[in-house]
Fold this protein.
Amino acid sequence: MSTVLEHGNDSRVDGIRNRLAPRAAGLALAGGVVLLLSGLLSWSYDDRILGDISIRFYPAGIQVYVMVLGAVAIALAVLLFRRPGWLDPGRGLKAIGLGSLVFVAGALLAITVQAGGLVNVNEGAWVALVGALLVLAGGGLAAEVDLDVRTWPRLKSSYEILIIVLALAMLLFVTAYTLDVENSATFGTLLVTILTVTVGLLMAGLGEYIGFIGQNNRRPLVLSAFLVAFLFPFTQGGSNANMSIATQILIFAATALGLNIVVGLAGLLDLGYIAFLGTGAYVGAMLSESTFATIGWKPPFFVVMLCGMAVAAVFGLIIGSPTLRVSGDYLAIVTLGFGEIFRLAMFNLDGNNGPDLTNGPNGIPGIPDLNFFGFDFGETHTVAGIPLGRFSNYYFLLLLLVALVILVFSRLNDSRIGRGWVAIREDERAAEAMGVNVFGLKLLAFAVGASLAGLAGTIKAHQDTSVTPDQYIFLESAFLLAAVVLGGMGTVAGVLVGATILKLLPEKLREVNDYRLFSFGLLLVLMMRFRPEGLVPSKRRQLEFHEDDEHLVELAQTEHLEESK
Amino acid sequence: MTVTESPQSSAHHIGDKVVLEANDVTMRFGGLTAVDSVSMTVHEGEIVGLIGPNGAGKTTFFNCLTGLYIPTEGKVTLNGATLPPKPLKVVRAGMARTFQNIRLFNNMTALENVMVGRYCRTSSMALTSILRGPKFRREEAETRERAQELLDYVGLGSATEILARNLPYGDQRRLEIARAIATDPQILLLDEPTAGMNPRETEETMHLIFKIRESGLAVVVIEHDMRFIFNLCDRVLCLVQGEVLIEGSPGEVQSDPRVIEAYIGGDAEDDEEEENA
């Protein structure tokens, strides 16, 4: 009896939905317009908070952001009217609506806290609230679309490249703009805006299409990505503040990419990876011109880099050969132990306990800046009228390093070695029975990963000007792994995204710095629940997690076919 | 279990050359003797069947041959050279196998699966893979070409870019065979290649195995499908409780009352041994 009733209820709800579905696009469009207009209204009486948001018809700060949200909502609503088969604007609108709600809530909270009371909120915020609800309703009511990847529009290759270049230029602009925002509350709302727009467009199915274009034009994509990264220092006008963060991100990303070879390709969980970065850094410091360097040999930096790589690789082999006989959780524990052993050894090799190599807890300070053929990395150089400071110099060097790591990663991935690694990850015993040298390949993954981290370490030593043991604690290894998992195991783009998020946010959101670990823990838990394959997953990984997703299987198939053409 | 057809009398000539020789292979797990001094000789171009009720030790015997287990006693020689008990070295020496429960690399394409099989016959290492010299590119192209050839050979030529997991069951079995042949073996061990197949697929598999034999490979097959085994094999070994019950031509084995008893009238103890796949 009750089931019949429920069924009746269901069909009634469905009936209402069906009747309202044609109006969904209209609702969403109205919501988008309301959001857009709310940006022209005043949000608060108080003109001292969040920039100045009290003036009408002169949007600033969060008023501009809400207008961006409105514009995207309008664009998606228009698409909802036209209904292309390869896009699902309804899902996108749902995400935009939700994000806008969060945005307005955040703005209300910020105004309430900073101006002292909810009474300080002006009509703009309330109008925006209505707009967000309308967009959400429109998105929720829109009929779901079965995405058909075969209806992707095929453009001329030159247009596709243009899309890529525009998207990346947009990325550069947004990055430069975002980094300029000093106020934490404004930065927070900006972040919500960026996230909302990104998620909204991804949910609408645009991400898959962009990925598809990227696959078709891989070389232009990579080149323009590097061009954008290369141009970034020129947007900073000689300021070192953001460039310092950027160099940290690059070092972190290069190391995480090295770890990605070990974890993402070969499937070996390494929890002590930071030790290899430390090995490189200590080698770089000991062989540097620093007066505290403990080794008398001062070779040119090129040689130091090779030494750092070699020593780290040897360490990798020494650790690997006994530990790689265990696998899974056991390997994780053993490598974790190795990471701690490294730190404690560096802490204690101060002359009292064994040879004086590291000056113990004091570390090796006073490492001079690099100097390539008279090009001093410590000085500000002016290119085309734009000053490029110390960190910009290191930024360019590190960019080359990241390029090298990406090259190594992607070429190994697409080779006999890479196939062997993937086979081991998929089924170790079957791989062995097919003649894959399982032990040797695991060892190779360890050595290659370690040597890349060692290389990054030698540069890090010079950029930081000092090396101490407390930089190489377990937490850093955990963060590296988090970057890989968050971004997407086995992909380059994913790890770059993950590394950027994990390094940039703590720098910019100083207020939540005390809750840094808590928020990352929360972030990871949420990721594991909702998107275990990472932000930018490899197709293989994605399939492992969503075995019965037909759409995904079809997508992977299409891309394989495209690749093989 | 009535097998009416007579064994296929192909005009194929079985070579005199002994490819694989197992001498008194014994495998004990603690107090349990899973394989008890089993000897087997396989000649060039010969198809040998291995039958026996569940738990008779057939797969364990396979694992001893391919180096997954180190036999407690006895030795295995391939072309006269003693095989080291390491799967890797066994494959390099020229023996390849498939698994009872299919073990493909599920999230790799059919072609990639076969290309992994070429691993032990190619030599590009890390540095050459990064630098991409002409040698690397040539080897990579050869690997790809050979893998495609093998896919065509087993009849999966059009499934190249399909992920292994998405292939129909019968195709997965055939892909496993292609992957095994990719290692350039002299002898192929097939562990229940037709399990779960319909009669038409079984028939196709039989023709595929004949084709493989024609190319000069020796084949050892474990199978429960008696019609299949007696039509296919030149010689059949029946294992019961880890020991060879009878060895002989298909005709001899299928008319032996002890074989029928082992399958139908066997006592309950037969089921106690667990086969390790």
About this structure: DSSP finds ten helices and ten strands in chain B. Chain B has two domains: 1-94+185-277, 107-182.
